[in-house]
Design goal:
With 208 residues, the chain is mainly β. The protein has one helix and 16 strands.
């Protein structure tokens, strides 16, 4: 998704090459002309962007380990890991002051999280029965707009940002998908049993 710079003079966007590499491209907001390109490490696939200043951009990216958040210094092309990749989803990345906020399914449901770049503390701000999504701050920053799923469908909600509860947590999966994990264990047990049976039957075969 294209992301305008704080001064509105530049636009950053995630770019994908035919070779499979990804990176961040900076365009002039008025003319659309190319300003600079910044290739991501080979293991990363850039997804969403959030400007901090004219020389620093934060990005969510996917790697073999899952979704993580990274910082790019435009001056020296230095990529730094901010949140270690985990097998979870990250959406709606946004920077507000010294905090990155985003949506993630750390506990199995989509909820709203805020990561303090100074203290390195991660807080979960919402806890809905069926989760919530499409979080967005108002222009003033004092309210949060979100959609909340229910048995009757989704409904749009707005709530004061300072009314959200804070629960400190860790950026790692906190939910077990019991059915999927059970099926995986069954498949593993079946494969091992089949392998043992094959070895046993092979031992009894004689060739004359």
């Amino acid at each position: 998704n294209p992301e305008p710079s704080p001064d509105g003079k530049s636009i950053a966007l995630a770019q994908y090459s035919h070779q499979g590499n990804t990176g961040i491209t900076i365009l002039d907001a008025e003319s659309g002309e190319w300003r600079s390109g910044h290739q991501a490490p080979d293991s990363l696939q850039v997804v969403q962007l959030a400007w901090e200043s004219e020389n620093r951009i934060y990005a969510s990216a996917v790697s073999e380990g899952g979704y993580g958040i990274y910082s790019l210094c435009l001056d020296d092309d230095n990529w730094t890991e901010v949140l270690e990749p985990q097998p979870v989803m990250i959406e709606n990345l946004n920077l507000s002051g010294n905090c990155l906020d985003f949506t993630s399914d750390l506990d199995g449901r989509k909820e709203y999280y805020v990561f303090n770049l100074l203290t390195k503390a991660l807080e979960r701000k919402t806890s809905f029965r069926y989760g919530a999504e499409d979080f967005a701050r108002t222009v003033s920053g004092d309210s949060i707009i979100l959609t909340v799923p229910s048995l009757k469908g989704k409904f749009l909600s707005i709530t004061p940002a300072d009314s959200l509860k804070s629960e400190e947590t860790q950026f790692r999966p906190q939910h077990e998908y019991f059915l999927a994990e059970s099926l995986t264990r069954q498949e593993k047990d079946f494969a091992e049993a089949s392998s043992e049976e094959f070895i046993s039957s092979s031992d009894s075969i004689s060739i004359s």
